[in-house]
Amino acid sequence: MLKKLFFYISLFSFFAVSLNVFANSSKYRDELPELQRFTDLTIGIRRINKGLKYESKGKIKKANKMYSESINFLLKANKNQDIDPDIFFYLGFAYNKLKKFDNAETYYILGLTLEPKNQYINKYLGELYLSLNKPILAKERLKAMSGCGCDEYNDLKNSINKY
After folding, report:
1. Where is mean pLDDT largest: 4-13, 72-81, 91-100, 116-125?
2. How far apart are CA 7 and CA 15, in angstroms?
3. How open is the CA angle 36-97-156, to the nearest 5 degrees?
4. Collapsed DSSP state (helix, strand, coil) of residue 71
5. How much is the pLDDT for 5?
6. Which of 83, 89, 118 is nearest to 105 (CA)?
7. Of 66, 95, 150, 159, which sits 20 to 30 A from 127 (CA to CA)?
8. Is 37 in a helix, a strand, or coil?
9. What pLDDT, on the 0 to 100 scale, is given for residue 82?
10. How far apart are CA 113 and CA 31, in angstroms?
11. Are 98 and 106 in contact (CB under 8 A)?
12. 147: phi > 0 → left, psi -120 to 50 → alpha, else beta; which?
């Protein structure tokens, strides 16, 4: 009889404690910050960064896989979000890394139609033109950046001088 009484008391106390703990934990759950879902743009940028890391380690196949995946996410972002020159820049960058120069040029130019003074797009498009043996077009990109006083201008200028 004493064993049954002890069993019921311990069972009752277990339920009482567990219910109390659950009640107290719900207030902590309400204090947690909102979790943010990664957008297709941020996932695409992360894939590009992973590709750059793989490329720096000499793992070209893995890098190219990351660049291809980034293009897929960036194209989704382009469909689902407002038109953004950053999306076009990253698409151009990824295509440039995959040596699909026509696509890279197209997306860089699309980005420049939205934001003609964008220093990053101008710089990378200028460097793309240098790699395609079109120094006159690269100089036009440099001229479009004149007066910005930014590092990108100096980088492109040095690249043109080395060409």
Report:
1. 91-100
2. 12
3. 100
4. helix
5. 62
6. 89
7. 66
8. coil
9. 82
10. 45
11. no
12. left
Tokens representing residue 153 in the block: 């201008």
Tokens matching residue 105: 């040029």
Tokens matching residue 33: 């910050």
Residue 36 has pLDDT above 90, yes or no: no
For the cut 60, the answer to whether the pLDDT of residue 39 exceeds it is yes
Q: Are 126 and 159 in contact (CB under 8 A)?
A: yes
Q: Write out the DSSP string of 93-161.
A: HHHHHTT-HHHHHHHHHHHHHH-TT-HHHHHHHHHHHHHTT-HHHHHHHHHHHTT---HHHHHHHHHHH
Cα Rg for the chain, rounded, in angstroms?
28
Phi and psi at 43, nearest 5°, equal -65, -40
Q: pTM score > 0.90 for this model?
A: no
The string of pLDDT tens digits covering residues 92-146 is 999 999 999 999 999 999 999 999 888 999 999 999 999 999 989 888 888 888 8
**From CA 89, how far away is CA 32, in angstroms rounded?**
35
